[in-house]
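If I may wish for something, please sit down with the protein I am sending here and say whether tokens and residues agree:
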Amino acid sequence: MENNQTADSEETKSCEYDPNVNQDELIMAQEKQIAEEIKANIAMVGELDDLSSLEREYSNDPVYFSKVATLLPKFSNVRRTRPDGNCFLRGFIFAYLEYCIYHREELTRFKQYLEASKEELFEMGFPKFTTEDFNDMFMEVVTDLEGSGSIDRVEAIINDAGTSDYLVVYLRLLISAHLQKNAEFFSFFIEGGRTVGEFCKQEVEPMYRECDHLHIVALTAALGVGVRVMYLDRGEGSSVVSHDFPEDKDPVIHLLYRPGHYDILYKA
């Protein structure tokens, strides 16, 4: 009994605030450890999973469980993405490349868009050396898929850290460029007294920054790609609410949103 009390006492002491320890550094170290554990245990984009797995996940949550039930007639499968702040962009590019390998005309259109986008980014002042590097990687991926396009190849590309991160960075640059080109419009939606340029530098261009409504509006408008997001949350109503981006375009990509995270959905 005395040994247990001693152990409990030591544990309590270790959890107490220590003025000699830099708390910011401690928090950063903990966040880094969590991030490393996520990287080690969760694929950037996982394997195709039956949507019923969501029912099992929320079997003890009546609100989410009932809303998941409304998804089942419309969707059959889900691919889970790594929750690292890049989940929307990783899910988007995986689903879009997957769509492109079955719709070759779209792959050709996307390649042409990428070729033209580099010069536009240069003209807007993005650094030439790094921008060209990211663009070259994207062009290599698209050219590769033109010749050997398959789901297995898309999985390999998106789950290769070096390649995948380059694609995500380039999408971030495209979002930033679109927001800045249309700054007069988007400035009304940015909080905190920041300019569009400041918002892009702080919330769009850095890796691991979560995407919100503005990111999605900008990316889908810039690429001309329709996305439908299904919102699974605790909002009012008994079913999952959907939103299309852009509103006038048929969606070719379906994503599941849960607070702070996006996964890929597949229609039934």
In short: Strands lie at 49-50, 75-79, 227-231, 241-245, 253-258, 261-267. The CA atoms of residues 86 and 208 lie 5 Å apart. Residues 49-267 form a domain with the 3 helical TM bundles of succinate and fumarate reductases fold (CATH 1.20.1300.20).
